Amino acid sequence: MDDPDLSGRTVLVTGSAKGLGREILLATAARGATTAVHYHTSADAAREVAEIARDRGVAAVTTVQADVTDPDSVDGLFAAVESELGSVDVLVNNVGDFAPAHWEDLDFETWNRVLETNVNGTYLCSKRALGPMRENGFGRIVNIGYASAENALVSPKNFPYFLAKTGVIMFTRMLAADTRDDGITVNAVSPYVVENSDEFPDDLPRGRPATFEDVTRPVLFFADPETEYVSGENLEVDGGWLPETV
Questions:
Q1: What are the E-state strand segments in 40-183?
Q2: Domain limits for position 131
Q3: Domain holding 102: CATH number?
Q4: Which pLDDT tens digit goes with each residue over 75-102?
Q5: Number of domains composing the chain
């Protein structure tokens, strides 16, 4: 399949100042999209990403600060993007905190932040994006999940993250059903360990983590205006990983 043509489309990738979000945003910019670089605290990194996008010939790019767990902040995020670039055509919900510890060792603030950034952030941004998408009769929402989350992972370590990502997959399928007559598709891409991870298990599938390109390819597939009959799907990018649960 050819690369998607995103010319004339406005793409918002949450958490796109660094890591996977950064690479997804730059990949959409390289395919003609106008892009919104979202950040929470990493203003300098966001400006750097915007400059790289400009150097690659993107038609327009802006940087916007917001806390995706706060409804008013999310509304301000979308209002700023709409004012500068137009309504969001493609939303990639990438933000999601991770807490690599046993659940009993986490304080409530950390537990809650993992759930809020992953679940509430995806909910709030998707809800805010839907109005203009429905009016335009077009929209693509891609949520970043986690490999095997739909199988209800129950490992005591990282448990709030698994819980949150299971919620993201459920939300993805619900929203796909709720928008099937609106010209909107909603899908998820669920990697296992990505190249910028803080820790790498000994038994990595295929002997390596997923590269950014491994993950951006399916995101671009779901973002493609031509991919109009694929919705409610969760594509796992895990190299064949099969977790052990307890």
A1: 61-65, 90-93, 139-144
A2: 10-237
A3: 3.40.50.720
A4: 999 999 999 999 999 999 999 998 888 8
A5: 1
